[in-house]
Amino acid sequence: MQAIFDDSLKTGNELIDGQHKELIDKINNLVTCCKEGGGKLQAIKMLDYLADYTDFHFSAEEELQEKVSFPGIAEHKQKHAEFKQAVAELHEMLAEEEGPTDAFVEAVNKNVIEWLYVHIKGFDRAVAEFVQK
């Protein structure tokens, strides 16, 4: 499954929306690599890059939340930590296999793409609405 950035994922914050688009591009690159027979090393490199970009993005979101004194920041940070743990588990999955498997791609869909959709539409949109008030 390819992730798609559409209007339902827009928060109204140009910086955050731009980073979400970039994040989705990174996820799609990983999924494409896996489905097209990319090797273990290539998948690990793409997952590393996704993890690094996620850290960068989450830091930007959390900095914005601190700047505006967003009341739900602790819960939001916890959700970010859960995502980082999911990515760490994907690293473990790759380490145990010869390369990216169908199960790995399914885990990316469930633990990365689906999580991201729910997170953006709920938590990130709440932050954007708070900032706009």
Task: Supply database-style keywords.
133 residues, mainly alpha, Four Helix Bundle (Hemerythrin (Met), subunit A), elongated
Report on the architecture of this protein.
Helices cover 79% and strands 0% of the residues. By secondary structure, the chain is mainly alpha-helical. It has a single domain, classed as Four Helix Bundle (Hemerythrin (Met), subunit A) (Up-down Bundle), CATH 1.20.120. Helix 1 packs antiparallel against helix 2 (40-67), helix 1 (14-35) runs antiparallel to helix 4 (102-132) and helix 2 (40-67) packs antiparallel against helix 3. The N and C termini lie far apart (36 Å). The mean pLDDT is 90.
The total domain count is 1
Task: Determine the number of helices (DSSP H or I, runs of at least 4 residues).
Answer: 4
Q: Supply the helix-strand structural class.
A: mainly alpha
> What number is the mean pLDDT?
90
The CATH superfamily appears as Hemerythrin-like
Rounded to the nearest angstrom, the distance between the terminal CA atoms is 36 Å
Helix-strand blueprint:
Blueprint: H1 14-35, H2 40-67, H3 73-96, H4 102-132
Helix pairs in contact: 1-2, 1-4, 2-3, 3-4
Task: State the gist of this model.
The chain has helices at residues 14-35, 40-67, 73-96, 102-132.
